[in-house]
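From the thread on structure requests for the teaching lab: each student submitted one protein with a one-line request. Submission from student K.M.:

"Model proton-translocating NAD(P)(+) transhydrogenase from Stenotrophomonas oahuensis, tokens only."
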Amino acid sequence: MAVEVLGVKERAPGERRVALTPETARKLAALGATVWVESGAGLGAGFTDQAYLDAGAQLADDTRASQADIVLCVQAPETAWLNQLKLGSTLVGMLQPQADSLRAATMQSRGLQVFPLERLPRTTRAQSMDVLSSQAGMAGYKATLIAAQRAPRFFPMLTTAAGTIRPSRVLVVGAGVAGLQAVATARRLGAQVEGFDVRPETREQIESLGGKFLDLGVSAAGEGGYARALTDEERAEQQRRLGEHLRLVDVVICTAAVPGRPAPKIITQAMVEGMRPGSVVVDLAAETGGNCEATRPGETVDVGGVVVDGPLNLASQGAVHASEMYARNLYNFVALFVKDGAIAFDWEDELLAKTRWVAG
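Reply posted by the TA:
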């Protein structure tokens, strides 16, 4: 009997993305799988039930979870829903099992093969499965648009009958995927853009997108391409110079994040208080605590005339393209162990072995 794959309807408040699209449903069927999707699962991302049916999938009722061999999701399902899953079935998504002890215990008690894709090794071979990168790209784009909306000024330079309007000065903190997307988007909007990262090797990437690398005179270059820890003196000097620079900036977009750990605090309360009234901080890292001490996750606060926005789940705001990228990531990962309509795990494959979660 062919392996059964179920794409679930997300139940987290505000989540519009979906883990299975009509495109990937068709591709999974080509691997020999029987593909099911919960009714209405794709509506938030613009995919109708009919589109799934046309792609060869079948609509699932509430009992299908107890029969599916592989379950695809975006966010981790609730514990009560996990208890319905077939014993020993496979769960793939952004699951963060360590974040909820009850959820982790349920996964273990059901004997699930759990693949939290945020644990995927960051290798060249894994790039087509890298959900953190694909979703960070959308988040960086949306964070920039939010910043442009919040800012009480134009981003581009304008020459008008009422005089010349200078371009906004935008500083992007962090030059990972989200940060680089923010640099590129702010440049497209016409802003004067700078990028800051503790890794000096990111200078070339920032400059290739039209941004200017903000050099604070302190290098964290280490061995093997990794950043080293700054000494207390170096960190204090870096913070002093950054604080002075922020007085000249109109918009700050914070994107620095470390998977599985709280976001590093880079912008202090005192730095925010030293910025000019009318300035804006958009903290993309709000979900893991924020890069800015003034950030309140899910809220927009005013600090002496400086607006600090801590948006959550930004990728979901671009649900169509975010879902398309995410679903392709999942398909490429599932294709590692679904062969000819059957599941065959190769634990010698580091992508499977290192992504798999085992309760410890």
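TA comment: The CA atoms of residues 54 and 201 lie 47 Å apart. The chain has a mean pLDDT of 93.
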